Amino acid sequence: EIGGRQRQEDLAFWARDEGGTALWFQRGGAILGYGVVRQQAWSFTGGRTCTIGPLGARDPAEAIACVRAAIAWAQTRVGEVQINLPGPHPALADLLAHGFRIAYVETFHSDAAPFFDARCAITSGSGLL
């Protein structure tokens, strides 16, 4: 519902092939968003890492809380956390202020209307949106 489409095959792939764990983000019983935290076999620094994404929030106002919750959950499991955060996402400034850094940049262009709200959604990366 939050992402706008069914994702059973994607979730099965992330769990089976990438050690992914699916998460719901809630406050006061209301679901704010969802996310997947995936174990990775590689990292930019060579250490054990998790990649956050996809992640989606119901609205931009809740997106930062969802990102913070996913990072907190991942940091209890590994030393390094990676996140494929789009530039318009409201969590970008917050993460940079808390020591995250930009290690890689991709550019995505489309003449069509956007197929996701980059203020609410984080993709799993360029290999599988």
Summarize the structure.
The protein is α+β, with helices and mostly antiparallel strands and 129 residues long. The protein has helices at 8-18, 60-75, 91-97, and strands spanning 21-27, 30-40, 49-57, 80-83, 121-122.
Please provide a written account of the structure:
The chain is α+β, with helices and mostly antiparallel strands. The chain has three helices and five strands, in the order αβββαβαβ. It has helices spanning 8-18, 60-75, 91-97, and strands at 21-27, 30-40, 49-57, 80-83, 121-122. Strands 1, 2, 3, 4 and 5 form a five-stranded mixed β-sheet that branches. Helix 2 (60-75) links the parallel strand 3 and strand 4. The longest helix is centred in the middle third of the chain and has 16 residues, at 60-75. It is globular, with a radius of gyration of 14 Å. The chain starts with 7 loop residues before the first helix and ends in a 7-residue tail after the last strand. The mean pLDDT is 85.
User: How many beta-strand elements?
Assistant: 5
Count of discrete alpha- or pi-helical segments spanning 4 or more residues? 3
**Helix content estimate:** 25-40%
Using the CA coordinates, give the radius of gyration: 14 Å
**Can you tell me the residue ranges where pLDDT is under 50 for at least 5 consecutive residues?**
none
What sort of overall outline do the alpha carbons produce when their principal axes are compared? globular
Strand content: 25-35%
Roughly what is the average pLDDT, rounded to an integer? Answer: 85
- N-end to C-end Cα span: 16 Å
How would you characterize the largest beta sheet? 5 strands, mixed
Structural class: alpha+beta
* SSE order, one letter for each helix or strand: HEEEHEHE
